[in-house]
Design a protein that fits this description.
The protein is mostly helical. Helix content is about 50%, strand content about 5%.
């Protein structure tokens, strides 16, 4: 399973913010430089995160973004599910698969595997991930 680029960016943004003092704002420019990501992608994902209550944003000269709640309240599986959506791994309906009427169980197996994936990720919080991140040494 490969995650979308936006999921990767969101996780990196949240990890970066969680590794800083709580409520400390960081500008999108600083964020994109620190994460070595295109500024437009960071803007797009940050905007999505603000809309979904993951980040808070402050406008203006000294503005920026920060986590909307403590890092321990962000479950990794929930974050990944939010970004990845609920699409099935395969589409058995288009084009219609003739094996569906024959009792093929692949769709159900893939669904169960996806749910296990999210359940396993939900065992960890953003705080757990940040505590395992080693800071860069200059």
């Amino acid at each position: 399973m490969q995650l979308k680029r936006s999921t990767d960016i969101l996780l990196r943004i949240l990890i970066h913010l969680a590794s800083r003092p709580q409520d400390q704002l960081i500008s999108i420019q600083e964020m994109s430089e620190a994460l070595d990501w295109n500024k437009n992608l960071v803007i797009k994902v940050s905007h999505f995160a603000v809309q979904h209550g993951l980040l808070k944003a402050v406008r203006g000269r000294n503005g920026g973004v920060a986590l909307a709640k403590p890092a321990c309240e962000y479950r990794i599986g929930d974050l990944v599910r939010l970004m990845e959506g609920e699409d099935e791994c395969i589409n058995c309906d288009e084009p219609h698969c003739p094996l569906l009427t024959g009792g093929c169980r692949l769709r159900g197996m893939l669904y169960a595997a996806r749910e296990s994936f999210y359940r396993e990720l939900n065992a960890a919080t953003l705080a757990d991930v940040v505590s395992s991140v080693q800071p860069k040494t200059a």
